[in-house]
Amino acid sequence: MKPISVLLTGASGTVGYEVLKQLMDFPNVNLSVFDKKYPGSIKKLEPFGKRINLVYGDITNSESIEKIAANQDYIIHLAAIIPPVADDFPETARLVNIEGTRNLVKQLEKSSPNCFFIYSSSISVYGDRLRDPYISVGDPLKPSPGDEYAVTKIEAEKIIENSSLDWTIFRLAAIMGGHKMSKLMFHQPLDTSLEIATPQDTARAFVNAIFKREQLSKRIFNLGGGESCRIDYKGFLERSFEIFGLGKMDFPERAFAEQNFHCGFYKDGDDLENILHFRNHSLHHYFEIERKKFSPLKRFGASILRKPIKYYLSKQSEPLMALRKNDEKMKQQFFSK
């Protein structure tokens, strides 16, 4: 394989870091990594030293992008503000997710017009699919009320599609791994149909995409783990709580929202798998990976403190907060009645 130049954004994120590690297996890839400088990115990226061209900068600043936009054959664009931060700071999310993508596109059109743009979008663009969980690429894009992240992803997709660059877009299912429990866990109805993908499999899709440009060009795909990665949200949480040593899912009634989230099963997810062959993991693999992260000592400690931990978590439930404060606007977001 002749040498190729690849630009990776968001390498310090969960999927981005896996992409970075996997690209290290390809000696003919000249890799440039563009990321925001903060303690987490320094800790993750600096150890790669001279094996990568590491550039710190601000994706919303055109001058920063100019430093890395020239002579790129491919870009894997993963940098984004994600929930719950995107929901709490929607203007920041718009600035990074939309204007940052616009900056990248403009600079690449000018400095690397033949670059193949590989973009990470989200299942959130389809909105609430609780009653119609089987999702295809051609389905309407209807973000749930208040889902600023989904809105930014749709806008970024349009920017890429309307550019003069060659491109492909992957709409990612629920990427599980490296998540912390937060208020977001209560936004999702317990009977949600959930298809996950591990960060490792997801990264493999982006890496393999470099070598399948012809089949992916100007196409949008749904990226999920497939049938072996499907479960309902309640079942997913029950198994997770068992692994963490937290026991039963004994939260107060109506702690979880009943509508207006996203997720579902990808009806056409095999289309991307048939091209890229990226799936190695099932739900079983995911839970085994998570189990290995928790030593018996950590699990024992969590089991001792399970009541105060779950009490603390329940305090983060915005659906419960809406009911207790009788906040009509929030109640309409989370509940149908």
Structure overview:
The chain is of the alpha/beta class. The chain has 2 domains: 4-179 and 195-226, 3-Layer(aba) Sandwich (Rossmann fold), CATH 3.40.50; 229-264 and 282-334, no CATH class. The chain has helices at residues 14-23, 39-45, 62-66, 85-88, 90-111, 148-161, 199-209, 213-216, 233-244, 270-276, 283-293, 296-304, 306-315, 318-325, 328-334; strands at residues 4-9, 29-35, 53-56, 74-77, 116-122, 134-135, 166-172, 174-175, 193-197, 219-223, 230-232, 265-266. The strands form 3 sheets. It has a 7-stranded parallel sheet, with helices on both faces. Strands 8-9-11 form a 3-stranded mixed sheet. Helix 2 (39-45) links the parallel strand 2 and strand 3. The longest helix is centred in the N-terminal third of the chain and has 22 residues, at 90-111. The model has no long low-confidence stretch (mean pLDDT 95).
Quick summary:
The protein is of the alpha/beta class.
- Estimate what percentage of residues fall within beta strands: 15-25%
List the helices and strands in order: EHEHEHEHHEEHEEEHHEEHEHHHHHH
Q: Output the CATH topology of the largest domain.
A: Rossmann fold
* Uncertain parts: none
Distance between the termini: 60 Å
Dominant shape: globular
> Biggest sheet: strands, sense, closure?
7 strands, parallel
CATH class descriptor of the largest domain: Alpha Beta
Count of alpha and pi helical runs: 15
Taking strands numbered 1, 2, ... along the chain, how are they ordered across the largest sheet?
A: 3-2-1-4-5-7-10
The appropriate CATH architecture of the largest domain is: 3-Layer(aba) Sandwich
Would you tell me the overall average pLDDT?
A: 95
Portion of residues in helices? 40-55%
Structural class: alpha/beta
| DSSP, total strands | 12
Name the CATH superfamily assignment of the largest domain.
Answer: NAD(P)-binding Rossmann-like Domain
Radius of gyration: 20 Å
Number of domains: 2
InterPro entries: Epimerase_deHydtase, NAD(P)-bd_dom_sf, NAD(P)_epim/dehydratase
Pfam families: Epimerase
GO molecular function: L-threonine 3-dehydrogenase activity
Organism: Aequorivita ciconiae
